[in-house]
Structure formats: structure tokens, C-alpha cells
């Protein structure tokens, strides 16, 4: 049981490290995750031992180089990001709007890729690797819609839904109704619910078994989005379906047990 409790604390520790704050001390970590300083030190030391963190001077900690190796492993397998990249690019170039690819990470949206549009007045969109509450984004609603009601209640609506703009849905019953609509229509909209005057539409990406594994979206200022809403909706649904087909084909032909490239053998 103690081991499971320790594993449960590793995620919150790693979540602390970000582009804005890449370095943490023991006391800071202890205060942030509400554990004794000795417990925080033990967690940090364990993460250093397996290479996920590195200890810098003055007892400060940063993300470790093992992450690079894990990233190489991810890049060497078939993944939704590589399958979606060409479609994201084409969709963005066709409409000159910003496109995103997102997954669900512990019941929050994580943006894993994007292509920025080419407009005078543009939406740069979420940073790759950024997290956002799922209830206030189009990609989040798509991903939540394919979770069970019990999962949503346990992980989303068991606490107040955070309001980011006047349009954010904060009522659990209204959110459930919205998610039912997503299942019926095959897409979700964000009408200025995360950022005022920024609208988007998203659709699900499925793997070879039909399981929703990601969501694809297109984002634009409301002044451009609203008049073209139906066209954008059709384009995004079509693009997500294309990525789903690409992902299914890739899974079918991926060799099992392919030889790995050692980390030290990578040039550059």
C-alpha cells in the first residue's frame, strides 16, 4: 500500500515542472504537494535514481535526460501525433486557421501538436504540452463525451467546474447535456468558453478498434468562425476521419519487435 501511495505522488511531482518553472527545490515541492519535507526529498531522490529528474547545484531539481530516451521510444512507435501531422498541416493551409491535436491526460486536455494559421488577425493557440480543463474546450468535450458518466462524475464534476470566461459551462447537468450533443453530432464547439472571442470546433480520432484516442480541432476568432461555422465543422469532421483511417492503417503494418536504435547512435 505504501508503494502505491508513493506512485500516486509521482505524477503530481512531475506535473510541477513546466517551461515557466523548470526548477524546484525540496521545500517548494513539499509545500506544493502538501507533504513533509522528508517525504518530498525521498520522492525527488527516487525520481533522480530512475533518471526522470536530475539534481542541480544547491539542491535544485530539473527534468532528467531519461525523458529524452522515453521520447525517442515514443517517436519510434506508431502514434497519433505522427499520423495526424500531415492532416493538421493541410487543414491549416486550406483555411489559414490554427489547428490542434489533443489527448486526454488524467482527465485534462493535453495539446500534443498544432499548426498556426496564416492570418493578419490570428489565434496562436495553446502551447504544445500545455494542459487545459476539459470542460471548457472543444477537444476536451469530444474526449469527455466518450467517457462514462461515472468517470465524468468521479474525475470532473466532483468539484466546481472552473469558469474561465462568461461563456464557460459550470453546471454539471449542462455539461452532461452538451456531451450528449457531441455524441449525436460527432463534433464539439467551444464558443469563447476558454478564451473570450475565440471559437473552435473539434472531432474525435479513433484507433483501429474504434476507440477515441485523440481529438482534432480548428480555432479562429469569432468574427471569422461564426460565419464559416458549418464549413469548418464539416472540414474538421472529415480531417479527423482521415487521421483515424491513417492511424488504423499504420497500426496494421507496424512491425512487432522491430530493432531499436540505441540512444547513443543518434546523430546530431
UniProtKB/TrEMBL annotation:
Superkingdom of source: Bacteria
InterPro entries in UniProt: GAF-like_dom_sf (IPR029016), HTH_MetabolicPath_Reg (IPR050707), Tscrpt_reg_IclR_C (IPR014757), Tscrpt_reg_IclR_N (IPR005471), WH-like_DNA-bd_sf (IPR036388), WH_DNA-bd_sf (IPR036390)
Chain ranges of the IclR-ED domain: 66-249
GO biological process, one term: negative regulation of DNA-templated transcription
Keyword Cytoplasm included in the entry's annotation: no
Listed GO MF terms: DNA binding; DNA-binding transcription factor activity
Residue ranges occupied by any HTH iclR-type domain in the UniProt entry: 4-65
Keywords attached to this entry: DNA-binding, Transcription, Transcription regulation
Pfam families given in the database record: HTH_IclR, IclR_C
This protein's name: DNA-binding IclR family transcriptional regulator
Organism annotation: Flexivirga oryzae
Amino acid at each position: 500500500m505504501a508503494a502505491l501511495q508513493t506512485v500516486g505522488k509521482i505524477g503530481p511531482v512531475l506535473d510541477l515542472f513546466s517551461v515557466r518553472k523548470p526548477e524546484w527545490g525540496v521545500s517548494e515541492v513539499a509545500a506544493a504537494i502538501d507533504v513533509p519535507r522528508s517525504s518530498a526529498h525521498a520522492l525527488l531522490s527516487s525520481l533522480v535514481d530512475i533518471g526522470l529528474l536530475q539534481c542541480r547545484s544547491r539542491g535544485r531539481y530539473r527534468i532528467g535526460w531519461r525523458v529524452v530516451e522515453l521520447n525517442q521510444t515514443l517517436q519510434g512507435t506508431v502514434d497519433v501525433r505522427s499520423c495526424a501531422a500531415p492532416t493538421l498541416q493541410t487543414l491549416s493551409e486550406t483555411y489559414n486557421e490554427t489547428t490542434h491535436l489533443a489527448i486526454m491526460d488524467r482527465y485534462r486536455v493535453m495539446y500534443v501538436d498544432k499548426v498556426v494559421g496564416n492570418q493578419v488577425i490570428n489565434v496562436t493557440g495553446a502551447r504544445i504540452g500545455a494542459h487545459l480543463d476539459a470542460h471548457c474546450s472543444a477537444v476536451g468535450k469530444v474526449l469527455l463525451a466518450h467517457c462514462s458518466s461515472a468517470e465524468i462524475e468521479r474525475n470532473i464534476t466532483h468539484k466546481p467546474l472552473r469558469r474561465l470566461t462568461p461563456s464557460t459551462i459550470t453546471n454539471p447537468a449542462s455539461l452532461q447535456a452538451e456531451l450528449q450533443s457531441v455524441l449525436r453530432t460527432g463534433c464539439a464547439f467551444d464558443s469563447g468558453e476558454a478564451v473570450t472571442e475565440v471559437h473552435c470546433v473539434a472531432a474525435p480520432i479513433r484507433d483501429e478498434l474504434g476507440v477515441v484516442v485523440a481529438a482534432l480541432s480548428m480555432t479562429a476568432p469569432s468574427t471569422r468562425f461564426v460565419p464559416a461555422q458549418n464549413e469548418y465543422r464539416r472540414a474538421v469532421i472529415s480531417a479527423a476521419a482521415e487521421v483515424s483511417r491513417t492511424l488504423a492503417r499504420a497500426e496494421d503494418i507496424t512491425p512487432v519487435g522491430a530493432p531499436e536504435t540505441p540512444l547513443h547512435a543518434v546523430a546530431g
